Amino acid sequence: MTDRPDDVPRPPEKDAGAEPAISLRGLTKTFGDFTAVDGIDLDVPRGQIFGFLGPNGSGKTTTIRMLTGTLRPRAGTARVLGVDVVRHPDRVKRRIGYMSQKFALFEDMTVDENLRFYAGVYDLPAERFAAQREYVLRMADLVGREDELTRNLSVGWRQRLALGAATIHSPELLFLDEPTSGVDPVARRQFWDLLYDLASRGVTLFVTTHYMDEAAHCNRLAFIYRGRIIADGSPSEIRSEHMDQRILDISTPDVDAVLPWLEAADDVQEAYLSGASLHAVVAADSPLTPAALTGRLAAAGFARPDVVEVPATIEDVFVNLVARHR
Ligand SMILES: Nc1ncnc2c1ncn2[C@@H]1O[C@H](COP(=O)(O)OP(=O)(O)OP(=O)(O)O)[C@@H](O)[C@H]1O
Ligand SMILES: [Mg+2]
Ligand 1 center to residue 227 CA distance, Å? Predict the structure, then answer.
């Protein structure tokens, strides 16, 4: 990890007494008669990594677009960095960064040209740009590749460059909409190291992701489903508040056949693929033990079932919350 040069302005220090980075009340967006975001309330503390999770079409990007002042809500209030972003979007635009889901970089421009473009958007003075450019190139590990065409970079490098471009003006608050989508696990880890580094400098990060392992890296989370927040809190608060069932993890070479068998079992509430194994959710007071389930699977003719009880992951909580709200 490289150090930020001292002449580059730093974001303000964390201040426990300060107003939250984001504060939403009743925020609503409709498209025609469809409600994409349905009266959400949310407080995002400063200097933390906040994970905004939800399935496809649940309203994540629509929410971010309202918070960055690019989409007008139908109703409700949105305060961003203490400013009413609906009334005064221009007062916050320079203080925030946005790495969008669909478009972040010009593929036909070089690394350097992309950084220059974003610096231009924020009217960065030449000396500040020079310092920030150097910091970003080192951060993204792109020193020596300044003149390379962006489309020739692998997805992992491109996402790091996009992060650099979104932070070229040292924003206090950064919105990242599925920044690691399509990125391999090693590059995802490196990307998260960069996010931790930004957070340690006091930057607030608002991140959407589909990767449940990334949810566990966040200080706080909110789940949005069909435009409504169905859970929020720290990962451990969410686990303890929303998951009182037990999870049985089943390893079997017969995943395709065992899954429908589990779904049909009376004492299994939910069954789904989790990594390479299956998870079966049973009531907290269910007498079903791993040994008993192993016996039933073997008796049903499945080869080599191996069942253990495991603690609920954030993914388990999420799958069950969605199932309950469906
Ligand atoms: N401009 C628009 N006009 C009409 N409907 C829209 C518009 N933008 C979004 N929607 C709808 O609003 C809902 C929420 O969309 P949104 O893009 O916010 O979801 P998302 O949670 O970001 O999904 P994904 O994970 O796929 O990115 C979807 O049903 C989408 O089709
Ligand atoms: Mg989206």
Answer: 10
Question: How do residues 261-287 score in pLDDT, each as one tens digit?
Answer: 999 999 999 999 998 999 999 999 999
Shortest-distance atom of ligand 1 to CA 101:
27
The neighbouring-strand residues paired with 91 are none
List, for residues 299-326, the tens digit of each pLDDT value: 999 988 899 999 999 999 998 998 888 8
Q: Which residues surround ligand 2, an ion (CB under 5 A)?
A: 60-61, 101
Sheet holding 22-31, edge to edge: 34-44, 22-31, 75-80, 83-84
Which atom of ligand 1 lies nearest, measured to the CA of 55? 25
Ligand closest to the CA atom of residue 56: 1
Strands (E), the chain: 22-31, 34-44, 49-53, 75-80, 83-84, 96-99, 173-177, 204-209, 220-225, 228-233, 246-251, 270-274, 277-282, 306-310
Q: Is the dihedral of CA 261, 267, 269, 271 positive or negative?
A: negative
Decide which of 154 and 260 is more confident.
260
pTM > 0.70: yes or no: yes
Going along the chain from its start, the domains and CATH numbers come out as 22-237 (3.40.50.300), 243-325 (3.30.70.100)
Q: Measured between alpha carbons, how far is 67 from 291 in angstroms, rounded to an integer? A: 50
Ligand 1 pocket, residue 176 CB under 6 Å: no
Cα distances (angstroms) measured from residue 304 to each of 273, 282, 294, 308: 17, 21, 9, 13
